[in-house]
């Protein structure tokens, strides 16, 4: 006798689904879903990894870890004694931190860069630079409010600064602004000259950190916290930008080639042919 028709096939299919649920999950072996999932996972993992040092620094500061506090105090007192003995050095440091490397100066440079990129039609790097700079300022401000760490109180202070201490806004702005300027402008620099902007960026970041501690307005851990939080911000926005590049068919750019190597071309927003290499770096006049 033939098996009854009707709901038997549906019941069999239902039993099979209940017995083997994983067999009927969507297969993401390729295509846009798999690509998006991989990018999301890698971006989250990379951001989490670079966030760990800042999280450790935050925990040590909030818990009042004595070895860190002793390091902060000893360094502040040693540099403060040097500042009291050399008033000329204090004036130089004050000009560097209050004019040359002031956050307003660095953010103004980034703003000018954003305008220049927008005029050229390079909307992607312009948006990245603007979001990175604005995000850094907002994240740093919120972190200061959350931690509420007092600034150093030293005898005969040589400088004063308002607000809370951790993380250092000057140090964070120096790192994020230097990273933005470096990564955007690097493709326009001849390859033989590229160590120079790298050295200038490192000098800016380290110099700002030194001036803040030497003038007695920040602890060492404040400066390190600002650097680490700035690194987190730049890493997160850069990973998003790299995913954006991939969606437009552009190859992954090496850090040594800058954020968008196509800036050397006449139309930085034009989509490259499939499999096309990145444009060459500018050459020097030497043959």
Automatic annotation (TrEMBL):
PANTHER family xrefs: AT30094P (PTHR14969:SF13), SPHINGOSINE-1-PHOSPHATE PHOSPHOHYDROLASE (PTHR14969)
Domain of life: Bacteria
EC number: 3.6.1.27
Designated name of the protein: Undecaprenyl-diphosphatase
Coiled-coil segments on the chain, per record: none
Location of the Phosphatidic acid phosphatase type 2/haloperoxidase domain: 123-238
Gene source species: Streptomyces avidinii
Sequence ranges of Pro residues compositional bias: 269-287
Membrane spanning stretches: 40-61, 126-147, 167-186, 198-220, 226-244
Keyword Protein biosynthesis: no
Region of interest (Disordered), residue spans: 251-287
Keyword Transmembrane: yes
GO molecular function terms attached to this record: undecaprenyl-diphosphatase activity
């Amino acid at each position: 006798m033939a098996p009854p028709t009707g709901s038997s096939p549906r019941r069999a299919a239902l039993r099979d689904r209940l017995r083997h649920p994983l067999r009927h999950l969507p297969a993401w072996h390729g295509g846009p879903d798999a690509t998006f999932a991989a990018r999301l996972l890698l971006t989250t993992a990379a951001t989490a990894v670079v966030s760990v040092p800042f999280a450790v620094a935050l925990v040590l500061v909030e818990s009042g870890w004595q070895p860190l506090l002793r390091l902060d105090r000893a360094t502040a007192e040693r540099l403060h004694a040097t500042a009291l003995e050399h008033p000329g050095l204090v004036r130089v440091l004050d000009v560097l931190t209050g004019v040359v490397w002031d956050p307003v100066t660095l953010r103004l440079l980034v703003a000018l860069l954003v305008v220049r990129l927008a005029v050229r039609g390079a909307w992607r790097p312009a948006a990245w630079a603007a979001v990175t700079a604005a995000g850094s300022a907002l994240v740093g401000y919120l972190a200061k409010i959350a931690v509420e760490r007092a600034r150093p109180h030293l005898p005969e202070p040589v400088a004063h600064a308002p607000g809370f201490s951790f993380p250092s806004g000057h140090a964070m702005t120096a790192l994020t602004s230097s990273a933005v300027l470096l990564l955007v402008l690097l493709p326009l620099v001849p390859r033989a000259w590229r160590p120079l902007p790298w050295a200038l960026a490192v000098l800016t970041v380290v110099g700002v950190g030194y001036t803040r501690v030497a003038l007695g307005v920040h602890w060492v851990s404040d400066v390190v916290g600002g650097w680490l939080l700035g690194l987190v911000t730049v890493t997160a926005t850069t990973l998003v930008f790299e995913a954006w590049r991939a969606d437009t068919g552009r190859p992954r750019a090496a850090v040594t080639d800058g954020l968008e190597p196509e800036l050397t071309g006449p139309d930085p927003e034009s989509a490259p042919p499939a499999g096309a290499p990145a444009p060459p770096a500018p050459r020097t006049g030497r043959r």
